[in-house]
Write the structure tokens for this entry.
Amino acid sequence: PENFDWDEAAKDGEPVVPNFEIDFNNPFDDVTKLVQVEKQLELLYKPFICVMEVSCRFNMYELCIMMPESRYDPGSHPSVAIKVRNPSAHVRIYAGGKMVASALTSASARNALFKVVRVVQELDYKADIKNFNRNIVNASFMMPFKIDLHGLILLYADKVTHNNSTRPFITYTLDDSGVRFAIFPTGFVLALHSSARSETQAAIASILPILAKFKNGYPTLAEKKGEMMGDVSYKLVWEHKLEMDNAGLLLYS
């Protein structure tokens, strides 16, 4: 199915009440409770990833021999893996010309990728850049309760965009950092457009007390899992849609 049945999921089973209280005004201040807080929120940070397509094909064995700090094991992965230092990052090069960099910050991933491209070009590969993009989903978490999106829209109209005809979530933008949040009625939230994990955590700490004002009951297990078909959930589907939405229509229309 293309859509998640929100109403049916709300009727499927009893509400799941949390057994751990979170101080939403200072969620990450007490390091002794940090693991419990992140577990309760199902908080998952994503690596910063940049992807580039270049206009040439590569011989994997040849490339591995010529590239410093590289490894090629076709039995486990169809790419040449390169460890980059200064900035610290990991880059993978595929035979068809695709390059993927992952790092702890967006800038590190981007700079590492361009550093590898320069080395490749110095090896006489005609690696002209065809396109470049980066991931926008930087973290996901699940509030222990559902969110009253209507109330959030009314009170924070200047910070929220929404369009019920195209998406089941609202978009909330923080003024200071520009980090955005895709907020679903079930309490599921995606953090978007951050540049570093520290910025992501600070942004989440800022949005949590706001979301706590709009508690709207507890979700059922079906709402928390959000399964649509097999192991595919609305969470994965919408995260993928947002990553593919280069024009930003889903967030801002």
